[in-house]
Every structure is written in C-alpha cells, then in structure tokens.
Specification:
By secondary structure, this protein is an alpha/beta fold. The protein has a domain at about 5-95. It is about 40% helix and about 15% strand. Strands 1-2-3-4 form a four-stranded mixed beta sheet. It is elongated. The N and C termini lie far apart (about 35 Å).
C-alpha cells in the first residue's frame, strides 16, 4: 500500500497548489489508505482534510447501503460513474518544521499527546521566533 506522507496544501504559501479537500477526494479515488497533510510550520490544512474525510465516509456509507461502492465521482470527472473504493482515506496529522538553521523535518503524530505537543510548538511564539522560519 502507498500513502503520501508529506503533502503541502495551498495553506503553505507559494508551495502547495491544491486544497486539502481536493487531496482527500483524489486519495479516495486512488484508494490510498491514508495521507498526511504537512504544511510548512502549520497544521491549518488538516482540519479541512479531516472534514472532507468525514464527508467521504458518509457518502461511502450511504452508497454502500444502496449497493454502490465508493464515493460519488467529482463533478469534473464526467466519465466515471463511481470509483470502486472500499476504504476511506485516513488523515494523518503532520507538519513540516522548517528551522532557521535550514533543517526541514516532516513530523507525524502517533498519539493525541504528540498532536498536542506539535500544536504547542507551533503556537508558542517564543519558540517560533527563535527556531522556526516565520512565513
């Protein structure tokens, strides 16, 4: 199985091009089990991706009840009636930390405590001014 673990959304200024919702729709159509939205020094795209994952899960559940599998095809894909998808992609919380020293690290959270620590690091202004490159 393939899972993209370092996607930058349009919340990363001048780097990411697509909305987090579009990434979730494409991951569902491609059958990815999970994706990680890892914006630079931010977790802004994760909330929208998670909301879209919940919407896709509801669509899949309703369509499975009617014996139609997969989420509905996006409006721009007129040639596909439905994708044969049996899984719903999971959103992995992540962020790319870019330090002033030039180090770039993608952080993935395994637990709620890890998520809380990542958010605390990104929201602590003293740490952000001292170590991270503010964009």
């Amino acid at each position: 199985m393939f899972a993209e673990l370092s996607i930058t959304s349009n919340f990363t200024f001048l780097t990411g091009a697509s909305h987090p919702e579009e990434y979730m729709e494409r991951a569902a159509l491609l059958g990815y089990p999970a994706i990680a939205i890892a914006d630079v020094n931010s977790v802004a795209g994760i909330v929208r991706a998670h909301s879209q994952a919940q919407k896709i899960a509801r669509q899949v559940k309703l369509r499975q009840a009617a014996d139609i599998y997969g989420p509905a095809a996006p409006a721009q894909d007129q040639f596909y009636v439905s994708a044969a998808i049996l899984n719903i992609p999971r959103v992995l919380p992540a962020a790319q930390l870019v330090l002033q020293s030039g180090l770039r690290a993608t952080t993935l959270c395994q637990t709620r405590l890890g998520w809380a620590n990542l958010c605390r690091i990104l929201s602590n202004r003293l740490i952000v001014r001292r170590w991270l490159i503010v964009q």
